[in-house]
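Fold this sequence, please.
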Amino acid sequence: MWRGFVAALFAAVMAVGVAAPARADTWNPPANLVTPLNQVWQHVESTYGDLYGFRNYGWDQLFANKGYLNFCVRWDSPQPVTAQQRDAVHAQLARQYKKWMDAMAGHNNFPYASVPIKVVGWAVRDRNQLQWTDNSVDIYVNDIRENAPQCSEGCGRFFNRGGTYPRCPGGVPRHYDQSLWLTSGFGGGAGGDWGQRIGSEYFMGNLNSADVHIFLHEVGHTFGLDDFYDWTPSGVDRFIMKAGSSTVITEFDKWMLRDFWRHLKNRYGF
């Protein structure tokens, strides 16, 4: 819900993304999508309270980092997590996020051909739930916010909009831009600039699925895309941002994402 992204070369890619060649400033959606896209943007402009003033969309986070996004997992569940499950969560998170970012690669001066996604921390009520001993991620124990384990606020972008993290022990490299909040028994999902919240059972049961559609829907909100509970644009009826109508990101979803970029890209100098 919106209301309420050679060895030395490889290392550089993982740190800051891959800069794509600049393209001409173009806007060329398929003819059949022009009208519904215009309707969507008119609706966004008339219903978002601070559309152009808000400064923590997924876009803002991405550009503050110069091309990557960091995550922290809020493990809001009594179940244990093995190292193998942890790594599978990280991998699936990156695969799903890539589906949205691939829609932007090479489009209308978007500068990143890829957007590395890294999980830097896990928050949990009881350290014994996390069944690994390595230090690959920071671990936050029994720091409770919203009746759920919370990653350090000092390291969170949501709590530190200036791009520096003076209260984060690991500094900028260990900060997190978004939380993947996995809650036992949670139905549906929620998403915004803070991250995405979905059921832990749902996400863990879909670690090998091609499309984790509730998560994909919520990532759309992180980048500003709207819900469509009470209306549908002309000529389209099945797309992932219309909850329950599609389990995959459609061409219309991709063009809505590109349209959001089109209207905000000047703030990043494009």
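Residues 1-16, 19-23 have pLDDT under 50 and may be disordered. The chain is about 30% helix and 20% strand.
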